[in-house]
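// run 5 | inverse folding | seed 20
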């Protein structure tokens, strides 16, 4: 499709975009596109609900009338209250706290110090592609450090050579720049090892997608995808020993570079993650694979799903998976009951879905050119609405912007929750969206 080149040839710079970037990219989405977005977003969404129980404290915290900004320093402490003349002496036992009292705030986290700092540079309309389409409303990039990115990427390419993925394409793999993605998406640390962890996990997930699900020239066959994914799960989360049968499983894992990469990356993950963080990553990965099998069935049958059904699957196959690494890379832990609290879950799902629409926008030509085209929201909108690819791009941009504004609203709402870790995590999600857009605009994978 000649008109699928709409999302190509992004520009690359070494500095973060100015807040006004994209102001001249377009006057906005026309009324017809807005109506299509409204119809699409009002249909079935497929969003899951959290199984984790919300902490009692979250039910009792009133909305803040003037919540502190999410990028406010977290290294101070409230001043002690003036001494009440009728209060007990300092050495007297304190009265028992009433059952309805709010929980004590966790120890405030130190503010990281490094190039760029961990802060919110805000949101803006950002130009993308060749600049001819409406801008993407997205957070601005907090840090661009290509020197650090080069170090991480070099170590990642060395690792890829060891595990065997993209063995005959290591030059292209280097130019893809998964190491740069990790540095852009995780500005909270300068530590190469956790950044390398993020780069490995994302590269391994992408390799699984390329070799098993998407790229016909790399051996992706729809009918072989489900059993391959089942073995991926055993490679990442080994089942109990079953004697000689386990030996056969291990032989199969060692013979497949994709499985070797996933197991190796998971091993690196275990050195940084706590038990609940590890299982969060694994279970989210396996959840993502359910959507992959749906895509495989559609490809095998030659079906184009309706947009609402694609979105229902895509929301669980998004960069939400990559975002499960944020606190692990940052060196802290967001409690599982907070991570899975419904409002937090919704916010991170909004961000993950927005970021994966960025991927769809940049992948239109690549995916349309495959012998068995993969599902892409732009191509599906064009088919369903009977419109041009250009019009479908505008609709997808409007949908992305709606998700980002939804996350921004959720972020403000959750600022009243008394958790420094949650504020830090949501700031990390914001940074991930920004870094994702920055990376897609420069990676050779999308040129």
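// decoded
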């Amino acid at each position: 499709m000649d008109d699928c080149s709409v999302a190509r040839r992004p520009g690359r710079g070494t500095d973060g975009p100015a807040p006004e970037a994209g102001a001249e990219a377009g006057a906005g989405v026309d009324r017809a596109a807005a109506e299509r977005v409204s119809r699409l977003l009002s249909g079935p969404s497929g969003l899951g609900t959290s199984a984790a129980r919300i902490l009692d404290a979250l039910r009792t915290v009133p909305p803040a009338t003037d919540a502190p900004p999410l990028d406010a320093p977290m290294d101070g402490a409230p001043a002690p209250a003036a001494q009440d003349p009728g209060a007990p002496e300092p050495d007297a036992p304190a009265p028992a706290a009433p059952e309805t009292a709010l929980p004590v705030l966790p120890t405030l986290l130190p503010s990281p110090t490094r190039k760029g700092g961990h802060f919110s540079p805000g949101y803006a309309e950002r130009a993308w592609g060749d600049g001819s389409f409406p801008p993407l409303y997205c957070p601005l990039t907090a840090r661009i450090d290509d020197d650090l990115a080069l170090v991480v990427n070099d170590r990642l390419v060395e690792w890829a050579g060891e595990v065997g993925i993209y063995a005959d394409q290591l030059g292209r793999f280097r130019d893809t720049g998964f190491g740069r993605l990790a540095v852009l998406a995780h500005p909270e640390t300068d530590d190469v090892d956790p950044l390398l962890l993020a780069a490995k996990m994302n590269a391994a997930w992408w390799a699984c997608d390329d070799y098993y699900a998407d790229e016909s020239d790399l051996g992706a066959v729809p009918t072989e995808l489900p059993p391959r994914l089942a073995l991926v799960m055993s490679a990442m989360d080994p089942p109990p020993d079953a004697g000689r049968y386990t030996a056969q499983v291990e032989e199969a894992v060692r013979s497949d570079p994709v499985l070797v990469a996933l197991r190796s990356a998971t091993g690196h993950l275990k050195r940084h993650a706590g038990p609940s963080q590890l299982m969060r990553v694994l279970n989210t990965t396996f959840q993502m694979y359910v959507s992959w099998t749906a895509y495989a069935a559609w490809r095998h049958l030659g079906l184009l799903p309706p947009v609402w059904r694609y979105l229902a699957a895509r929301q669980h196959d998004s960069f939400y998976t990559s975002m499960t690494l944020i606190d692990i890379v940052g060196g802290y832990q967001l409690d599982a009951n907070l991570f899975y609290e419904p409002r937090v879950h919704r916010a991170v799902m909004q961000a993950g879905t927005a970021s994966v629409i960025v991927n769809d926008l940049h992948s239109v030509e690549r995916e349309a050119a495959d012998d068995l085209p993969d599902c892409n929201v732009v191509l599906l909108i064009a088919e369903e609405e009977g419109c041009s690819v250009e019009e479908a791009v505008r609709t997808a941009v409007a949908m992305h912007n709606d998700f980002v504004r939804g996350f921004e609203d959720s972020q403000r709402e959750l600022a009243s929750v008394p958790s420094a870790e949650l504020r830090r995590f949501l700031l990390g999600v914001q940074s991930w969206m920004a870094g994702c857009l920055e990376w897609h605009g420069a990676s050779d994978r999308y040129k």
